[in-house]
Amino acid sequence: MTTDEVLSEFLTALSSGGPQVRTRAVNTVRRILANADITVITQSHDSFLKALDRYSSRTDKQYSLTDCSSMNAMAAVGITEALTDDHHFEQEGFTVLIRP
Fold it and tell me: How open is the CA angle 44-59-62, to the nearest 5 degrees?
């Protein structure tokens, strides 16, 4: 499972990599979107507002809005493990699967 916001963040992270990197990034996202085994949660105004609520309630943290959206999506479907090295997910009680 992933979200539109995570895919957007992935593309943003690779946007300055030049034409070949950008093309590979787009192809990767398109393969993810076409893969029946991967659920991509679509962004909506409601999901944005819920992420904004989490973001605004954690003023002592450095969570990105995308982090908040991902945490909300994970919690909604009962996912407890995150394929990330982002310690923010641990702060919210998720298990981080990539160790730096």
Answer: 80
- In this prediction, residue 99 carries a pLDDT of 85
Q: Which residues on adjacent β-strands are paired with residue 80? A: none
Q: Give the bridge partners for 3, in sequence order.
A: 41
Give the rounded distance of the alpha carbon of 16 from its chain centre. 20
* pLDDT tens figures, 29-50: 999 999 999 999 999 999 999 9
Give the model confidence (pLDDT) of 6-26 as tens digits: 999 999 999 999 999 999 999
DSSP-based helix, strand, coil % in the chain, nearest 5: 55, 10, 35
**Mapping DSSP to helix (H, G, I), strand (E, B) and coil, where does residue 94 land?**
coil
